[in-house]
Amino acid sequence: MEVGYTATGPLDCTKGYIGLPGGVCQCPHYGYMFSGRLRCVYPGTDWPDEVAVAGEAYFFPAGHVLIYEEPSEVLELNPAAALQQLIDHFEAMAASGGFTKDDG
Is residue 58 over pLDDT 80? Predict the structure, then answer.
């Protein structure tokens, strides 16, 4: 498992998943919200959106899109191999000019 801390303003991560199978994140996420609001959407399914807010723990399985609806601080625990594949994808997108900081 990899442990990480995310601090971000409002951010729709949808464009970051372009090119991944189904256009969704393939990494499951376990986390705890220190502040903010995080929506998890499951495109192409009949699963309802899930929302985590300050003070809540969450688990979002693979097959999702994340949308930080307000400034958020989050502690995340992710399977190392799945997270590395996601990071590799984001880095390749950034290197090709396919994803920039302004895309969120």
Answer: yes
Kindly report the pTM of this predicted structure: 0.88
Please report, for the domain that includes residue 81, its CATH number.
2.60.120
**How many residues make up the chain in this entry?**
104
> From CA 7, how far away is CA 35, in angstroms rounded?
9
Look-up: residue for tokens 């998943």? 17
Phi first, then psi: what are they for 89, rounded to 5°? -65, -50
Which domain does 57 fall in, by range? Answer: 2-103
Q: Could you tell me which residues are beta bridge partners of residue 3?
A: 77
**Hey, what amino acid is at 24?**
V
Confidence class for position 101, pLDDT limits 50, 70, 90: low
Number of domains in the chain: 1
